[in-house]
Design a protein that fits this description.
heterodimer, A: about 270 residues, alpha/beta, TIM Barrel, 8-stranded parallel beta sheet, about 45% helix, about 15% strand, globular, B: about 90 residues, mainly alpha, 3 helices, extended, binds zinc ion
Chain lengths: ~270, ~90
């Protein structure tokens, strides 16, 4: 089996996780910029984080023969402070040419506030001006439905944005059609309590087709499972899906989306 | 997979989750104090399961969701609790 982990926060994981993922057939890991679990005190904290994502973490991953890629942004959880966000967004361009940067992400909304929306629009503008792919985080739990609709409005209102170059992550049964109907890609995150179980993710694949969907573990510093994608592949096999269909869902689809960035090269 | 095969694969798991839910409601009922909007949302979500129409997961998720569309003036904290406080 081979798979791509399109969303994992590896700076928060231990080397045993790299070993397990590489052993399970992980051919590439993509790491969106994330909230650290506490607010960073200044743009300098983000500068150091962007260096970690573009310089240090790829070296750590290479020790386990897994190519490492990343996405850059200030996460929506830290977007209430527009002044800080502006200063952080100004730092991003100097990192965009790093060999492992895939685009702008994970941007989006957290509590659906006006300031979060402002910062989302600033990120979308940066991506449009610099021709970057976009990875969008949708809010949690009760805020997801509203946030997904607000995010789609922002993306649709910017005529420079091509939906096939954006993936809207963390979709569930009540948001997946909103995203796919507008031509965007959709990601499913395998968190059993707060997002999708493997069984529900496979349901969504069965109901909405596997054309523009991917699955990810979104493993981070909280309770999460770095092997969630291979476990979902196991669930697909239990349901009787053919080997090729499993390969398409966990390798072919993320490969197709991510290859829109010429820098993306998984281990083949 | 046909219906019988799906029941073979998932019935015990689904049964266990329904019993867990029932036990959770007993636990809440045994305790003192008031329940809040989260419990109310849960009870409304459960009524969706009585329907004969498919689309259960979507409708249950919507029962827990904020249906409004106006952005909030300010982010109140960072976390979500799982149910919309405006539920009636
Ligand atoms: Zn994430």
């Amino acid at each position: 089996m081979r798979y791509i982990e399109p969303h994992a926060h590896m700076v928060s994981r231990v080397t045993d996780d790299y070993v397990a993922m590489a052993t399970a057939g992980c051919a590439a890991i993509c790491e969106p910029a994330f909230w650290a679990g506490y607010d960073r005190s200044s743009p300098k904290g983000f500068f150091d984080y962007f260096r970690q994502l573009t310089e240090h973490e790829p070296k750590r991953a290479a020790k386990f023969s897994v190519p490492h890629f990343c996405w850059l942004c200030i996460n929506p959880k830290e977007s209430e402070d527009v002044q800080l966000a502006t200063e952080v967004i100004d730092l991003i361009p100097e990192f965009l040419n790093a060999p492992n940067v895939l685009g702008i992400g994970e941007i989006g909304l957290n509590k659906n506030s006006r300031n979060e929306l402002k910062v989302l629009e600033m990120h979308v503008d940066l991506a449009a001006r610099t021709g970057q792919l976009i990875l969008v985080h949708t809010p949690h739990l009760e805020d997801k439905f509203k946030g997904t609709r607000l995010i789609l409005d922002v993306l649709k209102n910017d005529r420079r944005i091509q939906p096939e170059r954006c993936i809207i992550d963390h979709v569930e049964e009540h948001t997946v059609d909103l995203v796919l109907d507008e031509g965007f890609w959709a990601g499913m995150t395998l968190y059993p309590e707060t997002k999708c179980t493997a069984a529900r993710a496979v349901d969504i694949l069965e109901c909405y087709g596997s054309e523009k969907l991917w699955m990810n573990s979104a493993c981070d510093w909280g309770v999460s499972v770095p092997l969630a994608v291979p476990y979902a592949a196991l669930e697909m096999r239990r349901r009787g899906h053919a080997t090729e269909a499993v390969d398409r869902a966990i390798f072919g689809n993320p490969l197709r989306f991510l290859s829109q960035c010429p820098k993306f090269k998984p281990a083949m | 997979m046909n219906r019988s095969q799906l029941l073979d694969l998932y019935f015990l798991e689904a049964r266990a989750r329904v019993i867990d839910l029932a036990a959770f409601m007993d636990r809440v009922n045994r305790a003192e104090g008031e329940v809040d909007f989260r419990y109310q949302a849960l009870k409304q979500a459960i009524t969706e399961l009585q329907s004969d129409d498919a689309g259960y997961a979507r409708r249950v998720l919507l029962k827990f969701s904020d249906p409004t569309i106006e952005p909030s003036e300010k982010a109140a904290g960072k976390s979500a609790c799982g149910a919309w406080s405006g539920i009636s």
